[in-house]
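To whoever is on call:

I kicked off a structure prediction for a single chain this morning and the downstream step that reads the tokens threw a length-mismatch warning. I double-checked the sequence; it's 346 residues and nothing unusual in it as far as I can see. Pasting both halves so you can look.
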Amino acid sequence: MFPVTDHAVKTARHTSFYLSCGAGNAPLIVFVHGWPELSVSWRHQLPCFAALGFRAIAPDMRGYGRSTVHPRQADYALEHIAADMIELLDSLGREKAIWVGHDWGSPVVWSIASHHPDRCHGVANLCVPYFPKGFGPRAVAELIDRSVYPEAEFPAGQWEYQLFYRENFDKAHTVFEANVPATVKALFRKGDPAGKGKPSRTAFVRKDGGWFGGRPAAPDLPLDVDVLTEADMNVYAAALTRNGFSGPDSWYMNPEVNAVYAEASVNNGRIDMPVLFLHGEYDYTCETITSRLAEPMRAGCPDLTEAVVPTGHWMAQENPVAVNAHLARWIAAKLPEVWPVQGSEP
């Protein structure tokens, strides 16, 4: 059983803290978290893949945890974040890794695959599909399911919340920061089958004048122990209290710059390497099963494997057994040359 250990790579431009588990010379798999998470979001994946013979790495992304919290919103454009990950890979002395992303970590991993394919064996993403034109409200506008989100009521569909950040940035992060433990408990909820076919809560954020029905702080809900333990919640709350939400929320503030970056991808945005995408059956913001949201990914990724996991958005935490099984099965089938040789030394 390999321990999970703490590390950091520091360069002139950025410091990335990361967790590591597994033999030092084992094949590398890097797990990239999203909003508003941490490296520990992958706590169920790191020891599993270390036991399978990988070196499993999970960084705190910029703005989070013990990594650099940059001061400007422009510092959170995908081009800079992808560069952080390439620096991390270089620091590990590796040419390539398997990259796994979730939520905003998915656009990071898609960016690495589309701009740095030579640094990837393959990529897997949870919940957020690939958009060759870049991830932002404009890119997904034509894919909104108008049977669920009538344009007169929800002009940007389930992506209304992203426009709220653009229009009310200070209010957005102030509300999250008003009671951080309550924010964490309110956000990290398991999937609800009863929500199928209904608008996501993110669609109401602009209409309500903010998250949580426009309240000045998150409601203090009971902890959803199917996603987080009390100890997990405390880790998230401590980090988000220390750093605040300005950095994490700034990831939403660069769609135009990110679109320009997407245009500079190699191979016209086509990703030819093996790709795995896991759909969240009860993820109603990133609703990829009945809507058209996954169509650009299917067009741009010819070697695509898809699977549906019966969870909400926090897939890797809500049902880690299924996520780990899908990842391991895909690696074994599509990347057999990367599958670890047993007996690697630490």
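Update from on-call: the warning came from a stale cache, not from the record. Cleared it. Sanity check on the structure: The longest helix spans residues 320-334.
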